[in-house]
Amino acid sequence: MTRVETFVVEHSQQPNPQRYNRSQISISEAQENIFSFLLDIVKKWEDEDVLNQFKQLFFEYGETASTEVSSSIYTLIFSNNQQEFRNTLKRSCYILINNWEVARHYQAIRNLIELFDDPTLTRYTVSPSLKRLRTWVSNFIKSSDFEELKLFASRFTETDSPWTSRYTSYLLIQQYVNTDNPLEQREAARALSRKLKDQYKMDLAMYTAHSQSFTETSQKRLRNPTVLGDGALRLIKAIVARKGQYSYKSLANLFLEQVKDLDNGSFKKSLVEYLTYSVKQPEVVKTLKHNLGQKLDSVYTEHDRAPADYSLRLRTCNRVIDALMTEDQQSPSPLFTLLLSQSSSILLAILLLKVVLVSKSSHHYLEARIANLIRYYDQFPREQCDWVINFLEVFQVVFAIHTENIEYNLISPSAQNIDNADHQSRSLTIEEMEACRIFSRIVSSQEDNTDE
């Protein structure tokens, strides 16, 4: 007999309402009782026993090892507040998942997600309170809250992954920036997103290193973390070649120095010039200046004569991101569609990089907009989304190279770093680029960690 079996009654038994003094406990107190109980047992009990208690509590409306906790779920049900119940259920799930992940009990996480397929939830009952409970749980399963829960647990479950699973780190950011989510969910989403980005960053660095070794053994070990094929290495070289005095980071620092004393109206005009600087296609420059200029001319006009302080710069840069990505946080913006229809994935990724380099606090906002677009295109078949996937892959590479804590350097066959002054005044030819080798090294993450 398990530990739980010594405390609980059979599933067929209903709790006795007379045992619970629900009039003396509030909803918030009931929730804290449940959270504290789960936090305690997940650290001390066997996983199976914890899952049984979870099922008794949220599926069966049965007695648990704590009369106080049983009384608490009774309070939630009779409050007739479905939203508070859903918040309690969601936070309870994240309490268990977070603790099981730390303890590396991945099977328990899988079992928790599978528990929501339990036939108990659809079983007929004459009890109005039990019917309400199961209806609420069923509604939770149909909600975006449960989709977010499955997303977080997806790397522990054995299911066929959709194409969007490659970009889970961005989808998780949506959960982190949403302050309506419970703290456990936000912290878990942030930590997992960071972990996935770090893994991608290391995989990319290893790929660039081993891809230059042409032995048959090394080629078998090689794992390209992108879906760009052989074009990934050429893309990396092209991005890394733009370094030294005229790097994007240097231009961003120069821009910030030049605009530090400007009013907001002048800052907005200068921002458009900065973003379009060095764009070589005249028609694209014209389109960008028209669209971005029109967008910025109409925002925060009441502050045009005020100093362009941190807050105004942040909000203005976020509006640029809206114009380039999605203005309604649901569907792609006209400028996004236009740029990608012209095969300008690299240009769009660089524009977004330039925005983040002058407004590092916009990084999470940008990633949340990326997540909006991934959700939008998820409704279409994979083969119809190739152009969007190409952009997402390019975006990941660009930001991994420029905003993470691994420094890439391009070395010519003569062992000269491409960053030196001899190369800064001209672009490398295709032949020179192909002949170069890439080297990387880990640097301090404090300066460039825009994800914090």
User: Which structural category do the helix and sheet elements fall into?
Assistant: mainly alpha
Q: Count the strands?
A: 2
Strand line-up of the largest beta sheet: 1-2
- What is the 3D shape? globular
Beginning-to-end CA distance, first to last residue: 48 Å
Helix count, DSSP H or I runs of 4 or more residues: 21
Strand content: under 5%
Rounded Rg: 27 Å
Low-pLDDT regions: 1-23, 420-426, 445-452
Quaternary class: single chain
Sheet with most strands: 2 strands, antiparallel
Ordered list of secondary-structure elements with their pairings:
Blueprint: H1 27-44, H2 47-60, H3 67-79, H4 82-102, H5 106-115, H6 128-141, H7 144-153, H8 168-177, H9 183-210, H10 216-221, H11 231-240, H12 248-259, H13 264-276, H14 282-297, H15 310-324, H16 334-341, H17 345-358, H18 363-377, H19 386-402, E1 406-411, H20 421-424, H21 430-435, E2 437-442
Structure description:
The structure is a single chain. This protein has a two-stranded antiparallel sheet. The radius of gyration is 27 Å and the shape is globular. The two termini are 48 Å apart. The chain has 21 helices and 2 strands. With 452 residues, it is mainly alpha-helical. It folds into 2 domains: 4-158, no CATH class; 198-442, no CATH class.
Question: What is shown here, in short?
Answer:
Helix content is 61%, strand content 3%. With 452 residues, it is mostly helical. The longest helix has 28 residues, at 183-210.
